[in-house]
Amino acid sequence: VVAAGIEGILDAVADGKNGILAPTGDAPAFQAAIESFLSDKDYANKFGEKARRYTKENYQWPVIADRYIAVYKRLAG
Question: How far is 34 from 40, CA to CA, in rounded Å?
Answer without folding.
Answer: 10
